[in-house]
Specification:
This protein has a 3-stranded antiparallel sheet with strand order 1-2-3. The chain is built from 7 helices and 3 strands. It has one domain. With 174 residues, the protein is mainly alpha-helical.
């Protein structure tokens, strides 16, 4: 397993990964790129320039978790979504692409901006897996009791590893 992330000089972050970990990370962020389609805006040139898009709440539970409603009131939530979701989608795709492009075997140095993109992308991948696995607060107890023969075991261990990576990155940034 990797040593994760550590502080570098001048705000940089050092990332250390084995080849298999890089392959897994790239696979996971590729999944994100496939899941989060580019932000769609209307045909109106002004709305397109401002990133104004659709107002419908995603029906997919994963996308609903990645793009939650900002308000309880459906009308207010739709209006907020209309003005923000296209840009949020583009941001999530850019973060995933940064991870895909900068994940390397061995030791690599990330700029502060790249490290922040990694943090956001790791969070998005964890949220996605969490929804798919129906993760609860008892996830660590569940993994400890789970047999390695359980078909869900690799996915739960991957979720746990992503949690570790996210924690080590937060520590390296602060």
């Amino acid at each position: 397993m990797s040593s994760g992330f550590s502080q570098g000089r001048g705000g940089a972050v050092i990332a250390e990964f084995e080849a298999a970990e890089v392959s897994l990370l790239r696979s996971l962020v590729s999944m994100m790129l496939g899941l989060v389609s580019p932000g769609e805006t209307s045909d109106d040139p002004l709305e397109r320039a401002l990133g104004i898009g659709e107002a419908a709440k995603p029906s997919d539970p994963v996308l609903a978790r990645l793009f939650p409603s900002a308000y309880e009131d459906d009308k207010e939530a739709a209006e907020f979504r209309r003005y923000t979701e296209a840009t949020l989608r583009d941001g999530k795709r850019a973060d995933a692409q940064t991870v895909f492009d900068t994940a390397k075997s061995g030791r690599a140095e990330l700029t502060p901006e790249q490290a922040q993109a990694w943090l956001r992308a790791l969070n998005d991948v964890r949220l996605t897996l969490g929804v798919k696995l129906d993760v609860t607060e008892e996830v660590h107890d569940e993994i400890a009791l789970m047999s390695e023969d359980d078909p869900r075991y690799p996915a739960f261990v991957t979720y746990d590893w992503l949690t570790y990576l996210q924690d080590s990155l937060v520590r390296a940034l602060w």
